């Protein structure tokens, strides 16, 4: 290689090689960024993920609707008195993912359960009003959720997630 | 790739692999210890530059394919969405589009270098022919890539080029139908071109491997054309050639970046920013600059079949070059006559390129025929004849002797000057095809735009006033379909806040649905909605406007242009003047005159416009003084309106322009420093070898 006769200016030569190598490395790394960043959601996808409003007035007690937000199904259930009582009767500490029903709904709107309908096991969509707990049943690997969307039985490790939402009025929520 | 290697890695794990797959030995023998002639000049770095560009095109192409939609109805829009919405999409698209031009530029230099120094002669015939195959594959790939954005030039270029095959006797029509997958260029054509455009680069890469293999068997040629004899004639590939190639690539990157960041549309055609329209052919169909010489040959032959044969022969003839030129001296350095004819040949190619961009009429046709004869005569008459009659100068015995002779002798600045002239000539030929909108119209006056030049920025006030003019006047007839309300709040735009954008959007009624009852309904606009178009479809727009549909304005400033003429376009390359589109738009808005000049007849339902091609425009004078009020005290004159709305429309066409120029500046600072570092490193590495 080139080291043989570098005795006269060893440091200057080494410095030049290191500086050039470093510049190439820095430039290469910086040039990589656009190629990675382009994989993230583009501006139109992000804009389409803006909050949505949902009118609750057509949903009768005991019914539920499914809406989509950011490509995810959101279950909105109008729970019966029985479902609410069942959800609140369990011993929270005994649950796989302990969380009280009160913490999962907005107070004053206790009849409304809003959850992301994606099984926390591997992402299938659970079926509402099925299973042993008056809640959701996931057909993929048999996870069972109760009427508060909490995991009760099966391989799923966590409760159905609650999306960010607020009540704009008594009959209207904004998700996102 | 020159036979088995005795390379032994010291690391035991690598040794284990090496015994089973001697790949490290292959790399070591081909790219590390491989002996390179020590007298190679910088023209030899174009091999590395080409490898780099091929890698770049494949990388950016694979990424663009992640976002592109190959469908006749969606392709044009998907390309625009890549540029507008994908993170760094504008950068990736510019890299790919300008990259194609750079790739061809480099391949032409590479080929001419081979021609000049006789790199096709024994024992390098197969190496040369593989190169011609790569070039043919590149042409096919470039052509199909140009079709993908599905603009007017894409569509009509595809129509014209595929129709070349209809010249084949008996089977022509069926072959063309087969290529199209239909009775005209359409969606199936686009789909297969996309598929093949993705495939061919990998074939190119495969042939490049063969090309490099053949190179490493025969050894590199060199400027003196004598084979290396002793160890003194060569240097190891690494670090000598590697660092020199690296410096070459760094310099080439500067040119490439100049196009990417400052002149992305310089080599393109404004017509390709108009979506494909099977019912209207643009006035001039012109291929990309790198095909122009062959296009000129095609057009100069009055018979269809003969023209097509001539065009393909012009490329195929390169394959026979090793046998057409049988002179024993390789390098033109020692062939005084061949050297002169070489430069004449280069001039012929550039002039053919120039003619390829001109309308096929009058003197251009005759010149085209003469030059076509010259082109073929170079291969069929001049080279065979020279091999017989030329008396070459004495060739040095060895490379080291040649180097010694050179140290005392004269350098060759003449060659470099000629090359620079050739380069400017190529740019010249490349840019003349942009003479479009001027036909039948007066040339628009230039303006000083705030967004021109390397540090150009949009004037926020002008953008906001322009938006007002668009909203109150233009939007009655013209859509702005590629712009969403949210864009008004984007950095580098009119600079509205999120709340202002929401308020602006809510003034619009947007069609949505269907709702649960299956009905369409109207709701107030949101930030994510796009500007609604004034007419539901093109037919309605046509019917309401006397037969001429008002064009969508999103891209209008990039879809219109005019020729700047010689020598302005050359100066434009350095001054980065890119504002022909805005000049034209602003001029048309102000070019209405009530008094039609003598000798011009304007048909019923049209209006006289000084700058509109043909002068008869269907749009009535849209702006008059005082029509739109401004809060900021700007004058309410037509001139001001025209300037503001043009600025606004430049932003709608190029919303990321500020980011592009800002990043461009950073990249240039880096590249200049890097090129200097590479240069000094190269000098150090080579210090012992001279
Ligand atoms: S995904 Fe629901 S149980 Fe596995």
Q: What is the straight-line distance between the termini of chain A?
A: 62 Å
- Mean pLDDT of chain B, to the nearest integer, reads 91
The helicity of chain A comes to: 10-25%
User: What is the strand tally of chain B?
Assistant: 6
Any idea of the CATH class of the largest domain in chain A?
Mainly Beta
Low-confidence stretches of chain B: 433-439
Sequence of secondary-structure elements of chain A: HHEEEHEEEEEEE
Helix content of chain B: 55-70%
Mean pLDDT metric of chain A? 90
Integer-rounded radius of gyration of chain A = 27 Å
- CATH level-four homologous superfamily name of the largest domain in chain A: Rieske [2Fe-2S] iron-sulphur domain
Structural class of chain A: alpha+beta
CA-based gyration radius of chain B:
29 Å
Number of helices of chain A: 3
Organism (chain B): Bradyrhizobium manausense
Transmembrane segments (chain B): 42-69, 90-111, 126-148, 160-183, 195-215, 246-263, 305-324, 336-357, 363-386, 663-681
Domain Cytochrome b/b6 C-terminal region profile (chain B): 227-397
Domain Cytochrome b/b6 N-terminal region profile (chain B): 13-224
List the helices and strands and how they pair.
The complex is a heterodimer of chains A (176) and B (690).
Chain A: H1 10-37, H2 43-48, E1 52-55, E2 64-69, E3 72-78, H3 81-89, E4 112-116, E5 127-130, E6 135-137, E7 144-145, E8 151-153, E9 165-169, E10 172-175
Antiparallel strand pairs in A: 1-10, 2-3, 3-4, 5-6, 6-7, 7-8, 9-10
Chain B: H1 12-20, H2 23-31, E1 35-37, H3 46-65, H4 75-84, H5 89-116, H6 125-147, H7 152-163, H8 172-180, H9 187-218, E2 234-236, H10 237-262, H11 292-300, H12 304-316, H13 321-324, H14 336-356, H15 363-389, H16 399-408, H17 413-432, H18 460-472, H19 498-506, E3 509-512, E4 521-524, H20 538-544, H21 556-559, H22 568-575, H23 580-590, E5 607-608, E6 616-617, H24 638-653, H25 657-686
Antiparallel strand pairs in B: 1-2, 3-4, 5-6
Helix pairs in contact in B: 3-5, 3-9, 3-10, 4-5, 5-6, 5-10, 6-7, 6-9, 10-25, 11-12, 11-14, 11-15, 14-15, 14-17, 18-24, 23-24
The structure holds FE2/S2 (inorganic) cluster.
């Amino acid at each position: 290689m080139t080291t043989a006769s570098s005795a006269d200016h060893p440091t200057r030569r080494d410095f030049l090689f290191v500086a050039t190598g470093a510049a190439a490395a820095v430039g290469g790394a910086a040039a990589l960024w656009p190629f990675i960043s382009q994989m993230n959601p583009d501006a139109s996808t992000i804009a389409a993920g803006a909050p949505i409003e949902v009118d609750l007035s057509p949903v009768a007690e005991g019914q539920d609707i499914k809406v989509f937000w950011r490509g995810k199904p959101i279950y909105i259930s109008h729970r019966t008195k029985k479902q609410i009582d069942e959800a609140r009767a369990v011993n929270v500490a005994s649950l796989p993912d302990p969380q009280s029903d009160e913490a999962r709904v907005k107070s004053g709107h206790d009849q409304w359960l809003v959850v992301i309908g994606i099984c926390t096991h591997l992402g299938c969509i659970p079926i509402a009003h099925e299973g042993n707990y008056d809640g959701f049943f996931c057909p993929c690997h048999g996870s069972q959720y109760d009427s508060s969307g909490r995991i009760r039985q099966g391989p799923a490790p966590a409760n159905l997630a609650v999306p960010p939402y607020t009540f704009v009025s008594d009959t209207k929520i904004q998700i996102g | 790739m020159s036979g088995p290697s005795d390379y032994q890695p010291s690391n035991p794990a690598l040794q284990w692999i090496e015994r089973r797959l001697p790949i490290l030995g292959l790399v070591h023998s081909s790219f590390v210890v491989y002996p390179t002639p020590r007298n190679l000049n910088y023209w030899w770095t174009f091999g590395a530059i080409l490898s780099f560009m091929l890698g770049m095109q494949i990388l950016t192409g694979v990424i663009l394919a992640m976002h592109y939609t190959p469908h006749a109805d969606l392709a044009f829009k998907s390309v625009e969405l890549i540029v507008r919405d994908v993170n760094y999409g504008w950068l990736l698209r510019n890299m790919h589009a300008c990259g194609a031009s750079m790739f061809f530029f480099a391949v032409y230099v590479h080929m001419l270098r081979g021609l000049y120094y006789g790199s096709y002669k024994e024992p390098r015939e197969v190496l040369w022919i593989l190169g011609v195959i790569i070039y043919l594959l590149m042409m096919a790939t470039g052509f199909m890539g140009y079709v993908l954005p599905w603009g007017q030039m894409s569509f009509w270029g595809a129509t014209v080029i595929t129709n070349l095959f209809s010249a084949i006797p008996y089977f022509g029509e069926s072959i063309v139908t087969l290529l199209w997958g239909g009775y005209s260029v359409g969606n199936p054509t686009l789909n297969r071109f996309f598929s093949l455009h993705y495939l061919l680069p990998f074939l190119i890469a495969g042939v490049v491997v063969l090309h490099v293999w053949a190179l490493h068997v025969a050894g590199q040629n060199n400027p003196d054309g004598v084979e290396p004899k002793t160890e003194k004639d060569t240097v190891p590939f690494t670090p000598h050639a590697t660092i020199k190639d690296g410096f070459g690539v760094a310099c080439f990157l500067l040119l490439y970046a100049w196009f990417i960041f400052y002149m992305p549309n310089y080599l393109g055609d404004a017509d390709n920013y108009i979506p494909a329209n099977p019912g209207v052919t643009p006035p001039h169909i012109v291929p990309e600059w790198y095909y122009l010489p062959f296009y000129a040959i095609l057009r100069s032959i009055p018979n269809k079949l003969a023209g097509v044969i001539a065009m393909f022969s012009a490329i195929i003839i390169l394959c026979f070059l090793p046998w057409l030129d049988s002179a024993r001296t390789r390098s033109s350095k020692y062939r005084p006559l061949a050297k002169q004819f070489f430069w004449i040949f280069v001039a012929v190619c550039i002039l053919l390129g120039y003619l390829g961009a001109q309308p096929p009429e009058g003197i251009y046709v005759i010149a085209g025929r003469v030059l076509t004869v010259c082109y073929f005569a170079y291969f069929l008459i001049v080279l065979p004849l020279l091999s017989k009659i030329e008396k070459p100068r004495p060739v040095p015995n060895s490379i080291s002797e040649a180097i010694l002779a050179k140290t005392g002798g004269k350098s060759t600045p003449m060659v470099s000057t000629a090359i620079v002239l050739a380069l400017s000539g190529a740019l010249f030929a490349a840019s003349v095809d942009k003479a479009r909108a001027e036909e039948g119209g007066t040339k628009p006056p230039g303006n000083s735009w705030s967004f021109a030049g390397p540090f150009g920025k949009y004037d926020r006030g002008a953008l906001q006033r322009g938006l007002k003019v668009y909203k109150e006047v233009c939007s009655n007839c013209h859509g702005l379909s590629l712009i969403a309300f949210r864009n008004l709040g984007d950095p580098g735009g009119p600079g509205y806040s999120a709340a202002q954008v929401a308020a602006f959007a809510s003034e619009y009624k947007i069609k949505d649905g269907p709702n649960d009852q299956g009905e369409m309904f109207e709701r107030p606009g949101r930030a994510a909605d796009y500007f609604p178009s004034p007419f539901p479809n093109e037919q309605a727009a046509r019917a309401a406007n006397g037969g001429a549909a008002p064009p969508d304005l999103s891209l209008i400033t990039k879809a219109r242009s005019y020729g700047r003429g010689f020598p302005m376009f050359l100066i434009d390359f350095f001054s980065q003047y890119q504002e022909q589109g805005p000049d034209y738009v602003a001029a048309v808005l102000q070019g209405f005159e009530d008094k039609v000049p003598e000798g011009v007849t304007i048909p019923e339902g049209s209006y006289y416009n000084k700058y509109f091609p043909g002068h008869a425009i269907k749009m009535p004078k849209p702006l008059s003084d005082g029509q739109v009020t401004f809060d900021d005290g700007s004058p309410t004159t037509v001139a001001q309106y025209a300037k503001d709305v043009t600025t606004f429309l430049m932003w709608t066409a190029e919303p990321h322009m500020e980011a592009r120029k800002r990043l461009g500046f950073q990249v240039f600072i880096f590249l200049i420093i890097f090129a200097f570092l590479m240069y000094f490193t190269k000098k150090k590495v080579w210090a012992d070898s001279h």
